[in-house]
Automatic annotation (TrEMBL):
InterPro entries: LysR-type_TF, LysR_HTH_N, LysR_subst-bd, WH-like_DNA-bd_sf, WH_DNA-bd_sf
Domain HTH lysR-type: 13-70
Keyword terms, alphabetized: DNA-binding, Transcription, Transcription regulation
Annotated signal sequence range: none
Name used for this protein in its record: LysR family transcriptional regulator
Molecular function as annotated in GO: DNA binding; DNA-binding transcription factor activity
Origin species: Trinickia dabaoshanensis
Family classification: Belongs to the LysR transcriptional regulatory family.
Keyword Transcription: yes
Length: 303
């Protein structure tokens, strides 16, 4: 088992004795030390006797103006003070995070869809709120991001709730639905198409795994005995949008990605297709970190 070897003398040592010794070395007077520790003088005298047994040294001897530390006590003074200060820092409440002064570097794992719908809106507010911080957006690789978060390689990941790892903390950011899109002047989208017309249109889809021609829309169509014409499969949503805007192809696309785009015509699809939830994911190791908590709240408030 790895770790720091513990001296047997420490196992039975009361931490309060070391606090008392530190105060005695500072005041060099039992009465004043007792007052500052809010102890009675006899109680401090009892603790001093125990300390003498622990260190096998008188530690403090009577002097003309109180007590004089022995040579052993003088050797203890600095390392004891440093140890107690370090211990105070270790058990202190979490620091208050100040975004204006923060110099954090945050790493977010996101697809191009999450970049556009989550990271970009958050970025507009992040720079003024935390001007000295940095943000790195890295490629979302679903099989890897849980391990990356565990090892501290990423701070947050954005993924669908349905496929999110059970062992990661999560917060749902929004619900998304699919709409039918084509170029702004597409002749077949002047009005909402029927299901039969929809199935005849040449369509494009996003296949995150690469090269697939089947998606949730096809499952919905198959349930009613229909199929559509998928002629283009691409790995990214942003390329899908460009392809549709510059051709006669149409696509089922997430509403948040395409709404307000003047190059596109957006219409309701003629068949109900299940949407999805987008969530923010992080590892337990970062859950209580004040900087991480601030970042999560900032992103949630931005989308």
């Amino acid at each position: 088992m790895s770790g720091i070897a513990v001296d047997n003398r420490l196992r039975g040592l009361d931490l309060n004795l070391l606090v008392t010794l530190d105060m005695l070395l500072t005041e060099q007077n039992v009465t004043r030390a007792a007052q500052r520790l809010h102890y009675s003088q006899p109680s401090v005298s009892v603790q001093l006797a125990k300390l003498r047994d622990v260190f096998d040294d008188p530690l403090l001897l009577p002097g003309p103006r109180g007590m004089r530390p022995t040579k052993r006590a003088e050797q203890l003074r600095e390392p004891l003070r440093e140890a107690l200060v370090a211990l105070e820092r270790a058990v202190a409440p979490p620091y208050a995070f100040d975004p204006k002064r923060a110099t954090e570097t945050w790493r977010l794992a996101a697809t191009d869809y999450a970049e556009s719908t989550i990271v970009l809106p958050a970025l507009r507010r992040l720079r003024p709120a935390a001007p000295n911080s940095r943000l790195a957006v890295v490629e979302m690789v679903p099989p890897r991001f849980e391990k990356q978060a565990e090892q501290g390689e990423i701070d947050l990941a954005f993924h669908t709730t349905e496929d999110a790892p059970e062992n990661m903390r999560r917060r749902v950011l929004f619900a998304e639905r699919y709409v039918l899109v084509g170029r702004a002047d597409h002749p077949r989208l002047k009005r909402r198409p029927t299901v039969a017309q929809f199935c005849k249109l040449e369509q494009a889809i996003v296949s995150p795994d690469g090269g697939g021609f089947h998606a949730v829309t096809d499952e919905a169509l198959r349930a009613v005995g229909l199929a559509r014409r998928v002629v283009l499969s691409v790995p990214h949503f942003l390329f899908l949008v460009s392809a549709v805007a510059n051709s006669d192809l149409v696509a089922m696309a997430p509403l948040r990605l395409v709404q307000g785009n003047p190059a596109l015509r957006v219409t309701e699809p003629p068949i109900d297709v299940p949407g999805y939830e987008m969530c923010m994911l992080w590892h337990e190791r970062a859950h209580r970190d004040p900087a991480h908590q601030w970042l999560r709240e900032h992103i949630a408030a931005s989308v």
